[in-house]
Amino acid sequence: MKKMKFSAIAFAVTLTLSGCSKPEQDSSAETSTTENQAAMSDAVTPNPLLLEFSGPYEGVPAFDKMDLKYLAPALDTGMEKSLVEIESIANNTEDPTFENTIVAMERAGQALNRAFTYYGIWRSNLSSPEFREIQREITPKISEYSSKITQNAKLFKRIETVYKSDAFKALSEEEKRITTARYNNFVGSGATLDEAGKKRFAEINQRLAELHRQFGANVLADEENYVLYLDDSQLDGLPDSFVKAAAGMAERRGEEGKYAVTNSRSSMDPFLTYSTNRDLREKVWNTYYNRSDNGDEYDNNAVIKEILSLRHERVKMLGFDNYAQWRLQDRMAKTPENAMTLMEKVWPAALARVSEEVADMQAIADQEGAGIKIAPWDYRFYAEKVRKAKYALDSNEVKQYLQLDKLRDAMFYVAGRLFNFEFSEVPEGSVPVFHEDVSVWEVKDITSGKLVGLWYLDPFARQGKRSGAWATYYRSYTTYDGETNVLSSNNSNFVKGAPGEATLISWDDAETYFHEFGHALHFLAADVKYPSSHNGVRDYTEFQSQLLERWLLTDDVINSYLVHHKTGEPIPAALVAKIKSAATFNEGFKTTEYMSSAIMDLLYHTTDPATIEPDTFEKEQLDKLGMPSEIVMRHRSPHFQHVFSSEGYAAAYYGYMWAEVLTSDAAEAFAQSPGGYYDKALGDKLVQYLFSVRNAMDPAEAYRQFRGRDAEVEALMRDRGFPVEGE
């Protein structure tokens, strides 16, 4: 899952409209010496969260200086400085030009960018009750700051003048795109409303910001509060690696001698796959899928209803029929109808495959005399039995060859072959980090030796860290004010192996690891001029990272990096053959749990919210869709953070499937090329058109430059083993 980044001004413009599920819009560009001196003059002791990055590698974040006492003052001061810069742009007496208006906005707010970098670390990686209180207090201030920019009439007039000028036609494609985006963002933020409309718009934005914060805090509270502790009699079926990791998790929580099953996917998933204790599986399943749906102080149903109502009210003010219609106007799908059409093409095939999968599982349960009907908490457990029966493939056997460190080295190998990047770990202590688990690598171009940037890795789960996996950056590549290097980051929630033991992960987790690294490569390979060119189109930006997953199954990676964690022996060819043979195994489950969330997202945002009671609406709509009783949404509504803790994926969660069409089509191009997945000519086009351009080129045109045509949905169907009409 990508974590988007923006400049402080872009953050202001998109806070209410695009949101940040993760703040996904924190950016950390460098600033001038004079600005740094100004920040230092604010107090005898300068606030370290506002200062220009210093030290090696063109400056790095001062993670060793992070202290919560600095955070609120840094954000307050950063917003004040940013607004002064905005007023200067708005009141410029010279005729508006691209340079004195659009570029000036690109340059503004850099001290605030740095403060948002640290804010993002606390929010995602180091959350605590103390931080959440600061977050609660600062959230309405950020919303107010956003409204002051987007409702600045003089500023909008200057942007509009540039956008509608004859000079606009002479701009480069990148310059046209960022100017158009500026104009559309302001219009979409209510810049054309009358004063009463602007006032109400700002009120809605402020309330939504608080509701998004509350939604995420409620989910995190349930993730932290619900931990199942097991004793030695409750470990039947669980792999040794999981047991050791669970013991470590319990010990770190002060429960030595017990085994912790945390309320996170990385803990829940293997437990449901291997535990033979059906009652415990049901308990773990219910705890995980009922996060923030327990009728207590952390219940999110009322929060969802209010969010939907306010979003609907706001887009009605802009002349749209519903939120999804407004959201998708600048996406590849363009309309909610187009997005839903894609879902409808794939959904029936997914349901048909689920019926087959459940029948296979029920047959095994019946043969064993279990006397049960397959329930949701049985799906993973019996799917694993089917996998063994059909393909003689044992997920735990595969896991013995999936060492976290070796997979990281495999990712570096792929980056070297495709992107000409070389990764070298920097000595411990030479670059500040925000937690002892974080490691840092220097990234160079192999041929020239030129520094590309740094890559930070925070791989392990811990209390206060939000669930899931994501990528972000602390500084983006730009050239408009001199070339900058990149500070990129990957973050995961793997369960750390016991002391002295390798951290072993599942095949799905290994794919996720490659996926998120794809986002980091997207940051590192960027070749754009302006910060705003890093603001990607949501139903396109998952494509590049999804595509990188395909290199996990290449022979080069398999033969060199998938080695047994104890013996060092390469993974047997017979086991690899089983993995490839089972490539589309359980695809019904994976597709249906994802698509149900994507479809519900679109339904929430195309339905009059006055008619919606979230729990009831979710059930009714899924029943209409024919949702199998054995599966639930990947993200049930009360903990659907992509959609309700921000607006980043709201009405846009379908984007993963849209990107999957591109992924499957591009993968076929590599599979059919003379050099396969390491074909030099196609690899160069991959970097040039799919990674380096970011959003400086129309995504559809960029894909056509790579593939020679538009992507075809049939490739997705073939990829998932679903029937294709006419084939």
From TrEMBL:
Catalysed reactions, as listed in the record: Hydrolysis of oligopeptides, with broad specificity. Gly or Ala commonly occur as P1 or P1' residues, but more distant residues are also important, as is shown by the fact that Z-Gly-Pro-Gly-|-Gly-Pro-Ala is cleaved, but not Z-(Gly)(5)
PROSITE patterns in alphabetical order: PROKAR_LIPOPROTEIN (PS51257)
GO cellular component, one term: cytosol
GO biological process assignments: proteolysis
InterPro entries cross-referenced by the UniProt entry: M3A_DCP (IPR034005), MetalloPept_cat_dom_sf (IPR024079), Neurolysin/TOP_dom2 (IPR024077), Neurolysin/TOP_N (IPR024080), OpdA_N (IPR045666), Pept_M3A_M3B (IPR045090), Pept_M3A_M3B_dom (IPR001567)
Taxonomy, superkingdom: Bacteria
UniProt keyword annotation of Protease present: yes
Cofactor note: Binds 1 zinc ion.
Cofactor: Zn(2+)
Keywords on record: Hydrolase, Metal-binding, Metalloprotease, Protease, Zinc
Enzyme class, first EC level, given as a word: hydrolase
Segments of skewed composition (Polar residues): 26-39
Pfam families documented for this protein: Peptidase_M3, TOP_N
Region (Disordered): 20-39
Domain Peptidase M3A/M3B catalytic: 271-720
Boundaries of every Oligopeptidase A N-terminal domain copy: 79-196
GO molecular function, one term: carboxypeptidase activity
Enzyme Commission code(s) on record: 3.4.24.70
Family assignment from sequence similarity: Belongs to the peptidase M3 family.
The protein's name in its UniProt record: oligopeptidase A
Organism: Agaribacter marinus
